[in-house]
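#struct-help
A.M.: can someone run this one for me? Single chain, 554 residues.
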Amino acid sequence: MSWKRLFAARILERGYDYYCDDAVENMEIAADSIRADVIGTEEYEVEITLRNGEAVDMYCSCPYAEDGNRCKHMAAVLYQWSEEGQEAEESGGAEEDDSPKTISVEELVREADIDVVRSYLVSLLKEDEKLLLRFRGMVKKGTTKEDIKRYVRQIDRITDRYLGRDGFISYYEADGFLSELDEILDADVRRMVDDGDYMSAFALMNHMFTVLGDVAMDDSDGGTGTLAGEIEQYWREILSKADMDVKQQMFRWFTEHLDGSVIDYLEEYIEQVIMEEFQEKEFREPKLQFIKDMIEKSSLQSDSWSGSYHTGKWATRYLGMIEKQKNSGILIEEFCRKHWRNSLVRRYYIEFCTKKKEYAHALEALDESMALDKEYRGLVAEYSNQKKEIFLLQGNQEAYRKQLWKLVLEDDPGKLHIYRELKKQYPPGEWKEKREEVFANLPGHVRPDELYKEEKLYDRLLELVTGSPGLNMLQQYEDVLKKDYPGELLQKYKEEVDKMAMHTGDRSKYRQLVALLCRMKKITGGSKVAEEIAAEWRGKYRNRRAMMDELGRL
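D.P.: on it. Structure tokens below:
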């Protein structure tokens, strides 16, 4: 479809998401125009002018389009229009249009005098540095240092324009900012990579990546990560094609820029490239030394959560590299003992021992870990589960069963999958007695609702549901209980919706209340109860006009 050429790739992608989410409403299509509303953060009005079935002018009420940009809302409307046009074509098509066709761009240029084209092109390129650089790249292969400086200035000007006086890019403008950077990536970086001008492409992307990490922006849609991911793919493409000299320069840049100069969550992209690329033997020792330096740097802050996490992260990466060496067991043992306080290191060691079937060492490390990390319930549960699995691997049935009981009652209580695993250890007759032992000894903070459902102990489940505040448990188990206990569920519903109705609210709250009454009507006897509640509210809250309107829909 020709209209797609009018949009940047990223804007098209966002527009398609809106179209797929049915965000386009109230569309009106005429011979020469399209009008529609698009539901985004707010409701935006879109108008598109058509000529001979082609979009020639567009308007949207969103802030991004106010600056003359083509936005995702316009794209969403055009996707919807294209779909409806396709449906019309499949159902018989439209009458043939006898109006004269607009001459295409290609035909216009082909028919123009060559001197006119050259003169116009010169004036155009003098006015637009972006087009000038792009044109030069097409005509003359290679990018000069001065060209890179100009590209950098372009990126900085784009950033300054969107940042404005307050130094912040709002949610409404984030798409535009990222799309302009994406355009440079798709057009200029792509050309440089295709031409084999790898270091120019690398330099331009690196500046863009650094700007992306430094800029203050409301990126609720996650566009920063998307663009960073595209840059990462270009890095990897260059590394797959470049010679060793280029790779050495890239390795230096990556390792030098994990110094805090790039924001934390973007550092992950650099780290992934360092660890997954540079597999040649020339990089083995430099990579190991770099990882050692990162471990030492992180260890200086080991008292903080962040320092401990980064120490463990780099330590496990180091271990992963040396594990590939022959006879690495002693090195791994020594290294792990040196950093034994770090839970990530211990977890690596436990998995290493388990893979080598050194179960005694793994169990010893697990016991130490449960003592060292006793304050962290999630870790304790993980260690306890690992012990259970090792006992199973050993064929130690008695220890395995004992560990299951410890998990169910202490280390990871109330988890259905562990409960089921324990249940399989006993014949049905014996299990009935054992399950009561479980219920009697569960910690007070653990709700047994899932376990009651598993055992079909619906009377006990009902007691939990009716005794819990709010509607969450009621709606969670409604389908299970409504056959045997319709009256009790309806009574619980009545209590909760009456509480909700006591406080005034807006139309959306009243709509929610009516939806709950409709839900009640699906339970045996619910229609009568729902109508009684509605009648009571009509009298009690008759001055709430919005509520009366919504009750009218019941």
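A.M.: thanks! The first helix runs from residue 9 to 20.
D.P.: also worth noting: The chain has a mean pLDDT of 89.
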